[in-house]
């Protein structure tokens, strides 16, 4: 290709990417910078063009409700990610055995992810409420019912159940794609050597699925950080503040309590938590490519 042809191709490529790049820079980048600026001001109902340093962050870290919501998110996030990853890997391994109706099973397990968290929350709120279907089933078996949705000690587990049902299929699809990328000769060699299939899977195959596992982890973690819809649909943060999460705290102060400075400080801290996870993973993937 001539020099003119390469130049023309580059111009066309950048012209096609131009709107997307402008959207990222102006909308996303601009929103982040504006939020950071507001978090460093004394803004309440409306933005104020002053500078108070880290005063909003100090207030935030001394706010008992904020600290409690972080504890709830840590407990929820740990359980949610562990169960989703474990269940998703098991489903991927099971479907990778070339089972019958594989296409149907993939669709069934992945379908919940196409639903909104509001729809998922409403459905599971109806199922798990004290007079709902699950409680009726437990009473039919001779139990006392099911009151986790109104129990402050157990309400977070209902959120884990509902959101795991929705997100485990995504992990299954990602890990299944990784498993289908494994060289079939690897399985044949292991079979000839008499190595059990489960041992090959645990010691050889799964360690090679690092990129797939990293992708699933990042997607799940971002879902944990922005958890809001399911909480509002299922519990409204209750009973009391037993299921309150940072995103609900931020939205409450942004719209309900007219304190956009404090809400912006909370949003910046949650963004930093995502960057602290994503940045090392991006660096790891870049070093893997260079080594390859």
TrEMBL record:
<feature type="transmembrane region" description="Helical">
    <location>
        <begin position="155"/>
        <end position="179"/>
    </location>
</feature>
<keyword id="KW-0813">Transport</keyword>
<keyword id="KW-0472">Membrane</keyword>
<dbReference type="GO" id="GO:0055085">
    <property type="term" value="P:transmembrane transport"/>
</dbReference>
<keyword id="KW-1133">Transmembrane helix</keyword>
<dbReference type="Pfam" id="PF00528">
    <property type="entry name" value="BPD_transp_1"/>
</dbReference>
<feature type="transmembrane region" description="Helical">
    <location>
        <begin position="200"/>
        <end position="225"/>
    </location>
</feature>
<feature type="transmembrane region" description="Helical">
    <location>
        <begin position="12"/>
        <end position="36"/>
    </location>
</feature>
<dbReference type="GO" id="GO:0005886">
    <property type="term" value="C:plasma membrane"/>
</dbReference>
<feature type="transmembrane region" description="Helical">
    <location>
        <begin position="260"/>
        <end position="284"/>
    </location>
</feature>
<dbReference type="InterPro" id="IPR000515">
    <property type="entry name" value="MetI-like"/>
</dbReference>
<keyword id="KW-0812">Transmembrane</keyword>
<dbReference type="InterPro" id="IPR051393">
    <property type="entry name" value="ABC_transporter_permease"/>
</dbReference>
<comment type="similarity">
    <text>Belongs to the binding-protein-dependent transport system permease family.</text>
</comment>
<dbReference type="InterPro" id="IPR035906">
    <property type="entry name" value="MetI-like_sf"/>
</dbReference>
<keyword id="KW-1003">Cell membrane</keyword>
<feature type="domain" description="ABC transmembrane type-1">
    <location>
        <begin position="70"/>
        <end position="281"/>
    </location>
</feature>
<feature type="transmembrane region" description="Helical">
    <location>
        <begin position="108"/>
        <end position="127"/>
    </location>
</feature>
<feature type="transmembrane region" description="Helical">
    <location>
        <begin position="73"/>
        <end position="96"/>
    </location>
</feature>
<protein>
    <submittedName>
        <fullName>Sugar ABC transporter permease</fullName>
    </submittedName>
</protein>
């Amino acid at each position: 290709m001539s020099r003119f042809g390469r130049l023309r191709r580059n111009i066309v490529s950048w012209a096609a990417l131009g709107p997307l790049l402008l959207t990222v820079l102006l909308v996303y980048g601009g929103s982040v910078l504006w939020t950071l600026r507001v978090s460093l001001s004394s803004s309440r109902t409306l933005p104020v063009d002053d500078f108070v340093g880290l005063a909003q962050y100090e207030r935030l870290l001394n706010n008992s409700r904020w600290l409690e919501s972080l504890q709830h998110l840590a407990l929820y996030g740990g359980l949610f990610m562990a169960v989703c990853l474990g269940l998703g890997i098991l489903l991927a391994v099971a479907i990778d055995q070339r089972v019958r109706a594989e296409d149907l099973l993939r669709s069934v397990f992945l379908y919940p992810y196409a639903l909104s968290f509001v729809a998922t929350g409403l459905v599971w709120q109806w199922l798990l409420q004290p007079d709902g279907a699950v409680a009726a089933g437990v009473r039919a078996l001779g139990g006392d019912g099911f009151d986790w949705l109104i129990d402050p000690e157990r309400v977070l587990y209902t959120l884990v159940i509902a959101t795991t049902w929705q997100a485990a299929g995504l992990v299954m699809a990602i890990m299944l794609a990784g498993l289908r990328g494994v060289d079939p000769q690897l399985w044949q060699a292991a079979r000839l050597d008499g190595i059990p299939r489960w041992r090959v899977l645990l010691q050889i195959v799964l360690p090679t699925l690092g990129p797939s596992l990293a992708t699933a982890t990042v997607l799940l973690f971002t879902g944990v950080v922005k958890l809001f819809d399911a909480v509002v649909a299922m519990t409204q943060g209750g009973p009391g503040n037993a299921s309150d999460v940072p995103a609900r705290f931020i939205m409450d102060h942004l719209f309900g309590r007219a304190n956009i400075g404090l809400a912006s400080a909370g949003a910046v801290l949650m963004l930093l938590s995502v960057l602290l996870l994503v940045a090392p993973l991006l660096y790891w993937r870049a070093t893997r490519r260079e080594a390859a």
